[in-house]
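Not sure how to ask, but would you mind making up any protein sequence you like and the tokens describing how it folds?
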Amino acid sequence: METSRRTAPPFGGFLRGLAGVEKRFWVLVVVVGLISGLGAVVLLRVLRVTQHLFWRSEVEGFLAGVVASPPWRRFLVPVLGGGLVSLMTLLVGQPLRGHGTAGIIESIWVKAGELSLPRALFRGFISIIAVALGAPLGREGALLQTGAASGSALARRLRLPSGQARLLVACGAAAGIASAYNVPIGGALFGLEVLLGSFALELFGPIVVSCVVATLVSRTLVADRPSYLIPHYVLTHPRELLLALLLGVLVGAASALYVRTINLLSDTLDKVPRRFQPLQPLVAMSLVGLAAIWLPELLGNGYDAVNAALLGKISLLLLAILPLAKLLATSMCAGAGVPGGLFTPSLFYGALLGGAFGHVAGMVWPGGAPSGAYALLGMVAVLAGTTHASVSAVLLIFEMTADYDLMLPLMLCAVISAAVSRRLEPESLYTSVLNRRNVRMPASVPPWLREEGTRALLKPVQRRVPPSAPFQEVVVLLLEQPPGTDLYVTDEQGRLLGTIILDDLKGHLPNHTLLEATVAADVMDTGVPIITPDHSLAEVARSFGKTALECLPVVDHERRLLGTVSKSDVLQRGQF
């Protein structure tokens, strides 16, 4: 028991054992979460003010304001939005197209976390204005871009290693989606599963911290409630689970259609002569405005229509027409160069498809769950089917609605939909965009991700001695250490001077006349291999190949002792 108490450091001791660079990184994780949360608050406020100005809508009444508007307003306001995007495209000299998430993934995996903060802020502001004026795209695109670009800017300014820079970009993007929809768990898993493609524990902590900070900011300054307030639905009857399974298959196929339609229209509009491309946003938004005269639900990100579908307040005719119309409008605007997200439009698409399925199921097989319950299943099925990320899809929808009793059918629908969609369309909504740019995702874990493993294996040093420590004190401390543990000699600034190894002291013990004059500096070994937190596990393994020691010291760029890494931990990790 004494040994266990001695070898288990208190939390405060662990923090003291971290180096300055490690503490700085965790501070940056918090700062990125704070910036993402504040950015979300500002952008959402701009969205609501603009909506109220042009549509006379209240905070949660965008669709009501659009429906109450005369036909000329439904047409001219989107035209104004398209004209704004076309004008900005001409001013900057390049299209503003793209939903942003694919660009963030490309930045993380290919560009070492490089993102332009001024472009992200400019594009995000134009995106929010365009969505407020009726662009059938999602508001989350601006929030993800702002958070990710802030992480990239901080990493670049402080010259962080590429691994930390990439992780900060992912933290910012995940925090953006967490603050946009009040989904800290789902946002964190979205960052891990979609952006980083890994659930590695060393990545989990920073992502979670950023999402928690951003969500706390948005809850304090915006609202603390689920995105969608729905009745308490229960789907536990075997018949309802069977229908959920069938819905997963159907919506999986619809998800593949969603991805292919987005890509097809983007490829088609890319072939338009370059001199006409700046006018595409104006033309696309004009067509959307024209359609909105009869289908006002097409305008904006579709939050109100989704909420109505979840409450079962949309007719079967509209549930059948609107998903296809929204898909065409979203694909056309995204391909034409109107900036915005595809996350919220996909929820619209899935909710209305699920609602239509629920209506038909109720007519064919009466007495089951209401259509709103199937609308919720449709949302998770489309999200999983388009992103190929079942885990984050389930958690995102669960947090948006806070209805735990639907967890089982949600999981079933998500897994089935993702499997069917992947079979029909191997690429997700985001990787398909990268493939069109000839950017290929690595087939296995990339080297920069493995480099983070060294930090995950780092253990703090419990005992260290100054170079003037008497020999007798050194021997006593060595004997108190666990087997395979050495004693490290550091100066007043914590810099490593050498290592004292118990077996190496055997040559000093017989000469008793010199023991009282011997100090730590006389018996330390300065030739022990040292490693840094930036070393990959393969490099650490090679260092262990040069020595018989069980542990090696880890130092920063100023040679300050950070901790140790053990040979057994490296071997257990098993990825070199």
Notes: The CA atoms of residues 147 and 172 lie 4 Å apart. DSSP finds 25 helices and five strands in the chain. Strands lie at 464-465, 487-490, 496-500, 551-555, 561-566.
